[in-house]
From TrEMBL:
Gene3D superfamilies associated with the record: Phosphoglycerate mutase-like (3.40.50.1240)
InterPro entries: His_Pase_superF_clade-1, His_PPase_superfam
Gene source species: Streptomyces nigrescens
SMART domains recorded: PGAM (SM00855)
Pfam family membership, one: His_Phos_1
Catalytic residues as annotated in Swiss-Prot or TrEMBL: 14, 87
Protein name: Histidine phosphatase family protein
Length: 172
């Protein structure tokens, strides 16, 4: 692959989860989350986004979010459930992206805050219009999506490498 191969990173925060007595990892989606996740999937489909590969946290709420969202896409991408996403730091998320095969052009990561928001912010060296301030003001609420582009190898992903080209929340 060429050093200027265009890549796309799609970051999806899990939809609204219930607060329950079960462990944080086992929290299911709330009613609102079950409504918002398919809406996020429809937004992705409408934006022409079908990832080559999805990395999804192993938590119940992220798996449920992805299951509901992916049914709205025209194709089912390969999905890997990755336990390292749960409670990952920014550095750990970047390291995970760096491990991605260069055969993948469009990668989706389904995860949690504060990691997903921190990753979108850190990778955004540039942004279209007011997307970056809007994303940062909103705090990246549940079921939100950020889309970043960059050129090169996944091994080159680092702070400031990308351009934030889309940001969507279900309640705008």
């Amino acid at each position: 692959m060429s050093a200027d191969t265009p890549r796309r990173i799609v970051l999806l925060r899990h939809a609204k989860a219930e607060w329950s007595d079960s462990s944080d990892h086992e929290r299911p989606l709330a009613d609102r989350g079950r409504k918002d996740a398919p809406v996020a999937g429809r937004w992705l489909a409408g934006a022409g986004i079908t990832p080559d590969l999805t990395l999804c946290s192993t938590s119940v709420r992220t798996r449920e979010t992805w299951k509901l969202a992916v049914h709205e896409l025209p194709q089912r991408p390969k999905t890997v459930y990755e336990e390292r996403i749960y409670e990952a730091s920014l550095g750990e998320l970047i390291a995970l992206l760096n491990e991605t095969s260069d055969e993948v052009n469009d990668l989706m990561l389904v995860g949690h805050n504060p990691g997903v928001h921190a990753l979108a912010d850190a990778l955004s060296g540039e942004a279209d219009g007011d997307l970056l301030p809007r994303m940062n003001r909103s705090g990246f609420p549940t079921a939100s999506v950020a889309v970043l582009t960059f050129n090169g190898s996944w091994k080159s992903v680092e702070h400031g490498v990308g351009r934030l080209v889309a940001y969507w929340t279900p309640h705008e």
